[in-house]
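Entry — protein

Goal — fold tokens:
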Amino acid sequence: MQLENHTFTDAGEHAALLSGWEQQYFQLDCGPFHGRLQQVGADGIHVFYESVNRRIVQQGSTPSDMLVFGIVLDSNSPVTFADRSVTTDSIICARANREFFMHFPGETALLGLGVKLPLLERHPELAARLESSMSNKNPVIPLAPGAREQFIALWRYVTDEVFALNAFAQSDLAQRRVTAQILDMLDALVESGIRDERADITWMSHSDVVARAHEMILARPLEPVTVQELCEALRISRRTVQTSFRLVTGKSPVEYMRAIRLNHVRQMLRTAPSVDLTVRDAAQRWGFFHSGHFTQDYRELFDAMPSDNRPR
């Protein structure tokens, strides 16, 4: 049975240790990053708690063989998942292998639950109810009153059980107990916790603007995208672009796009030895040609010098 606790000072390392996920985390807020990840895995089940102290954007896809559910525990403003606003009275319900962008405000915590498809095949009644609740294309569904608190209470109980079982019970027994309890937790949620949904069209539109801009950044790393180019490509006004970024990311378009490029430089510096890649080369690959401005922007975002992040 998998039982892990991690703390992080780098958003990319945080993303890499979430079991079974293909994704990247990009830090947007300035200052030292602190993240926490607790995850439990047993016989087709993955339960995880994660928290971050800085605003980040996640890009990736859900595991290819798993349905995923998530509840926001703490957040100063709405989380965004796949163009939808996720408040504390809603739940993420995502199918396997779904591509997504997810925006985390600073000081945010999330509880996630993944169930592998082969396990659900052994529980056809639960699988049918899950399919019914996820029959529409909306990956964020409102919760019925009290469902969130019930789900969190059950999660805490199961987590305590996991530590006890891991210490005192045989491995097979521990796995069976944990799996049964988590399936029961999910069954209770589907049975009475999900209510009729209404899509937030306005939030979807704003989030889509940010997602399309993000793709433009990745498509041309050497040449920073301008706000005017976004307006022309997306056929929207400058005011709409500015409003979309402020609502979804808490940043201006320029701040957001610069942070994404800086995160990519940081990833390169953390993985490539200095003999193979200089700081200047890494910076220039993402459009930073003025070394003084680059160093200042990098230090402001990550509270570190570029040379501090080279492999030892």
